[in-house]
Amino acid sequence: PTVTVVVDTSGSMDEAHLGRVQAELEAVLSRVGLRGVGITALAVDTEVQASAPIRRARQLQLRGGGGTDMAAGIDAAVRSRPRPDVIIVLTDGLTAWPSTPPRGVRVIVGLLRNGSSPDAEWRPPSWARTVLIDQS
């Protein structure tokens, strides 16, 4: 599959979160067998701050800060070429989400948490598959 990863780099994503993001990117690349093919990764706060095809997590500059809008990241991912089959969003969940799912693309949210459940207003949308990622 063609995979694009949208990484939340907003102000709420501290060093521990960003370190976990790098580990998750490496896992996607190696365990899913995409290291040879590579993926597109986007660093996003309220807009795309960096975009790069990567084969290693360290190739993406995790820059941003301030507000958060993963809807902007998902929209940018859908418009990218080649169009992804799967979009993986790595976030702490403190973000706005699109009101409707992108057409023809599966969205998986890797929700980074610090041992607590996200508030109801920050939960990923029901149309996205959510995987809870504990900080350990």
Describe the fold and architecture.
The structure is a single chain. By secondary structure, the protein is α/β, with parallel strands linked by helices. The protein has helices at 15-31, 70-79; strands spanning 3-8, 39-44, 48-54, 86-91, 106-113, 129-134. It has a 6-stranded mixed sheet with strand order 3-2-1-4-5-6, sandwiched between helices. Helix 1 (15-31) links the parallel strand 1 and strand 2 (39-44). It is globular. The N and C termini lie far apart (29 Å).
Please state the oligomeric state of the protein chains shown. Answer: single chain
Low-confidence spans: pLDDT under 50, at least 5 residues? none
| Biggest sheet layout | 6 strands, mixed
Report the span from N to C terminus: 29 Å
Number of helices: 2
